[in-house]
């Protein structure tokens, strides 16, 4: 059963799931972590390659590697899923608090690609403590979803097993393992 109190992605109309060529959703709910343990390693792209091997050639925005609300509208780049570096614009960044979920989202495209090579994506994240989390029993929820447009997206959608679904799960699992490792070292 879905959790009706859990935060959801705020989709631009162009990328609404079910109206694009490919869509994936991955989520983890993990005990013994809270948003403060996870958010710093998601919001700082200097950590990504340490826990996710499907990303590289990261060029952070001019505002730095740690994304803040002031970075919304900034451009950055990275390569993933065999694509050369994508052009990316940070669309949403809201750090989590005890009462609001953390939100991060970007829009990405392959610069100069046209026709059958064109791909455009919207990738969003939510990081929040579960409603049943407490100071004595912490539980964090991390959700990532991506909606894609273009022939490469159609090809990804028909590939079994889904490279997007598996790749994003690997990103989530890596983020959680990395956060646990960093927490243990504190």
Automatic annotation (TrEMBL):
SUPFAM superfamilies: Bet v1-like (SSF55961). It comes from Sporothrix eucalyptigena. This is Polyketide cyclase. It comes from the Eukaryota. InterPro entries: START-like_dom_sf (IPR023393). Gene3D superfamilies: 3.30.530.20.
């Amino acid at each position: 059963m879905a959790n009706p109190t859990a935060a959801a992605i705020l989709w631009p109309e162009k990328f609404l799931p079910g109206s694009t060529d490919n869509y994936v959703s991955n989520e983890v709910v993990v005990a013994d972590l809270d948003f403060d343990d996870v958010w710093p390693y998601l919001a700082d792209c200097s950590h990504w390659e340490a826990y996710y091997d499907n990303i590289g050639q990261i060029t952070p925005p001019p505002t730095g590697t740690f994304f803040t609300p002031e970075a919304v509208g900034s451009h950055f780049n990275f390569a993933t899923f065999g694509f050369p570096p994508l052009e990316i614009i940070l669309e949403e960044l809201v750090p989590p608090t005890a009462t609001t979920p953390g939100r991060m989202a970007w829009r990405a495209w392959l610069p100069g690609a046209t026709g059958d090579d064109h791909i455009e994506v919207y990738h969003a994240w939510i990081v929040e403590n579960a409603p049943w989390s407490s100071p004595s029993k912490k539980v964090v929820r991390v959700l990532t979803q991506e909606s894609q447009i273009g022939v490469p997206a159609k090809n990804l959608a028909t590939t079994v097993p889904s490279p997007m679904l598996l790749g994003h799960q690997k990103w989530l699992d890596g983020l959680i393992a990395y956060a646990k490792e960093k927490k243990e070292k504190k």
